[in-house]
Design the sequence.
């Protein structure tokens, strides 16, 4: 095989590159429509019109509205995760900044900067849309969630997490948590999953309240209140986990 043949084999074909470029352009047009009109107004016809395409031509890339929505949601989760990673990397050069605080603040800031796309993820579900089970959206949200999990529990052993102090879990709930997939939260013992869900609900609820204008009475101090809440939450949660070397039998 010649060097030219090897290069051609390694690189996507011209047709594949053109398709990838067209797909990106369609997704960007759909994001622009969501930003301008909100998720509920998403329309294949309007997206096609903005690109000078026919709806039939757009169907070559996304056979249905659900396919486009699935790709949009997955991309939005990935963009949010990228912002969180950037926030975490920036905090690494600031001594004393907890990783979980950094990713939480990056999460909050992205939501404030992109309220319509945040609404696509966490607002009123789009009518008639159902995400494919174990599909791209599920994998994307797990990638994002893994960052929270890592920063919240990265310094603890499985034994410590299993011995975390939480209200007694019912047998049915414990069984449900133990059956979660390993690439989701299933790698954690049930008490840790319960703590993670509680922490997630708390900080996410604060972000939702702010994005939708329910905490505007705090004025310019919302970022400070959020940081205080996250720090307090993390301290309370970590107190529930026995220290290293403790008897966790």
Sequence:
């Amino acid at each position: 095989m010649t060097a030219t043949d090897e290069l051609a084999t390694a690189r996507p074909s011209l047709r594949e590159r053109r398709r990838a470029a067209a797909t990106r352009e369609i997704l960007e047009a759909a994001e622009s429509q969501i930003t301008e009109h909100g998720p509920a107004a998403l329309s294949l016809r309007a997206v096609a019109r903005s690109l000078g395409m026919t709806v039939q031509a757009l169907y070559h890339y996304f056979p249905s509205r659900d396919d486009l929505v699935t790709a949009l949601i997955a991309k939005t989760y990935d963009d949010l995760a990228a912002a969180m990673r950037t926030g975490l990397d920036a905090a690494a050069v600031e001594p004393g900044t907890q990783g979980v605080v950094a990713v939480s603040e990056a999460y909050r800031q992205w939501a404030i900067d992109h309220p319509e796309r945040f609404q696509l993820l966490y607002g009123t579900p789009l009518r008639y849309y159902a995400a494919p089970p174990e599909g791209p959206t599920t994998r994307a949200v797990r990638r994002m969630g893994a960052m929270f999990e890592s920063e919240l529990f990265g310094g603890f052993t499985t034994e410590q997490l299993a011995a975390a102090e939480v209200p007694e879990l019912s047998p049915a709930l414990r069984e449900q948590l133990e059956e979660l997939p390993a690439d989701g939260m299933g790698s954690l013992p049930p008490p840790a999953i319960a703590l993670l869900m509680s922490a997630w609900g708390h900080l996410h609820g604060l972000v939702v309240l702010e994005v939708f204008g329910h905490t505007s009475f705090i004025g310019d101090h919302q970022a400070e209140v959020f940081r205080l809440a996250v720090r307090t939450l993390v301290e309370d949660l970590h107190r529930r986990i026995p220290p290293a070397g403790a008897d966790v039998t």
The radius of gyration is 22 Å.
